[in-house]
């Protein structure tokens, strides 16, 4: 079963696990994951199709929303093969190299989401603080450039991870604690010097989540300052209402990340099921919630879907 590479003590295959303590109810767990994937993939495809179809949505805000939907599709499709294999078909093995590829894409899409949320906060900042120059600042060329910068930043910072893992021997077993591959999970079964992996991992987290969240908070501080300067209470409410969807998306993304970090830092003896469930929330909830949030809270998206349903 192990099939080691003799030179590096790397298992040919790694063993994935389900959710500890819920082995007897994995049929229900499989159903829940299938529903999550159905909502995530269907909802994000619907948002993309609507933005492409409706010329009224060919605006910077909805271009950024399309980027978010594309990225959420990437997150969902990255985890889908091994999660469905684990819970639906009881196939729990993944090749070592395939695991590294999945790890790279999961982390890359997660870090890209943070960058896209930052770009969306800049969009709201310009729309509220400098509305007269909105269309001249956020041109199509600049939006494409911002998207490519987010992609390049995530790809370049995450590219060393598979090679840093590949150099390590694995002598603590081949059983991972999730139904997909994550860098921290692989570090738990690696032996040898993992300081470089941990230090570089911390650098990447600070360089992405830390920097992005700081600038998102700064942008909203400036937005709040601009809104409070508006004399009309009705105009204040209208301006803030355009940010509600984005604020909900930011909370859906960052709250699970903060919760996972707090549990790892202050509740190290937490039952394994807690760590697994929080990791699942971090990966599966934002791609599912984002299309729902924007469909419910954004009038133009809601109107576009109603128009399509009325025609059909």
Descriptive labels:
312 residues; 75% helix; two-stranded antiparallel ribbon; mainly alpha; Rhopdopsin 7-helix transmembrane proteins; 12 helices; globular; disordered N terminus
Account of the 3D structure:
Helix 3 (96-129) packs antiparallel against helix 5 (140-158) and helix 3 (96-129) packs parallel to helix 8 (195-228). Mean pLDDT is 90; it is low at 1-7. The chain is globular and about 65 Å long. The protein contains twelve helices and four strands, in the order βββααβαααααααααα. It has a single domain, classed as Rhodopsin 7-helix transmembrane proteins (Rhopdopsin 7-helix transmembrane proteins). With 312 residues, it is mainly α.
Summarize it.
This protein is 75% helix and 3% strand. With 312 residues, the protein is mainly alpha-helical. α3 runs parallel beside α8 and α10 (244-266) packs antiparallel against α11 (272-297).
The total count of helices amounts to 12
Structural class: mainly alpha
Spatially, the strands of the biggest sheet line up as 1-2
CATH superfamily: Rhodopsin 7-helix transmembrane proteins
Envelope shape:
globular
Secondary-structure element pattern, one letter each: EEEHHEHHHHHHHHHH
- Sheet with most strands: 2 strands, antiparallel
- Radius of gyration based on Cα positions: 21 Å
Named CATH topology: Rhopdopsin 7-helix transmembrane proteins
Tally of DSSP β-strands: 4
Spans where pLDDT lies below 50 across 5 or more residues: 1-7
Q: Estimate nothing, just give the exact number of structural domains.
A: 1
CATH architecture: Up-down Bundle
- The CATH class name reads Mainly Alpha
Membrane topology: Multi-pass membrane protein
InterPro entries: GPCR_Rhodpsn, GPCR_Rhodpsn_7TM, Olfact_rcpt, OR51/52/56-like
Pfam family, one: 7tm_4
GO molecular function, one term: G protein-coupled receptor activity
């Amino acid at each position: 079963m192990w099939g080691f590479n003799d030179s590096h003590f790397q298992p040919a295959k790694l063993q994935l696990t389900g959710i500890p303590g819920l082995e007897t109810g994995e049929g229900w767990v499989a159903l829940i994951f299938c529903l999550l994937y159905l909502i995530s993939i269907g909802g994000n495809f619907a948002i993309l199709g609507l933005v492409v179809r409706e010329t009224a949505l060919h605006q910077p805000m909805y271009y950024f929303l399309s980027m978010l939907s594309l990225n959420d599709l990437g997150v969902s499709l990255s985890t889908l093969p091994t999660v469905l294999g684990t819970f639906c078909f009881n196939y729990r093995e993944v090749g070592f190299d395939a695991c590294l590829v999945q790890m790279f894409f999961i982390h890359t899409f997660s870090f890209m989401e943070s960058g896209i949320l930052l770009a969306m906060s800049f969009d709201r900042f310009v729309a509220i603080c400098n509305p007269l120059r909105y269309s001249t600042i956020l041109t199509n060329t600049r939006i494409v450039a911002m998207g490519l910068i987010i992609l390049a930043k995530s790809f370049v910072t995450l590219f060393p991870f598979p090679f840093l893992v590949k150099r390590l021997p694995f002598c603590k077993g081949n059983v991972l604690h999730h139904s997909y591959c994550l860098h921290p999970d692989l570090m738990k079964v690696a032996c040898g010097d993992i300081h470089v992996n941990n230090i570089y991992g911390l650098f990447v987290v600070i360089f992405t989540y830390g920097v992005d969240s700081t600038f998102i908070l700064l942008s909203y501080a400036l937005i709040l300052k601009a809104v409070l300067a508006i004399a009309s209470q009705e105009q204040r409410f209208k301006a803030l209402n355009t940010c509600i969807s984005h604020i909900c998306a930011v909370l859906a993304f960052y709250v699970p990340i903060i919760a996972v970090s707090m549990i790892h830092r202050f509740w190290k003896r937490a039952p394994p099921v807690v760590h697994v469930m929080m990791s699942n929330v971090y990966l599966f909830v934002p791609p599912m919630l984002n299309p729902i949030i924007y469909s419910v809270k954004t009038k133009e998206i809601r109107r576009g879907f109603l128009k399509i349903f009325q025609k059909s």
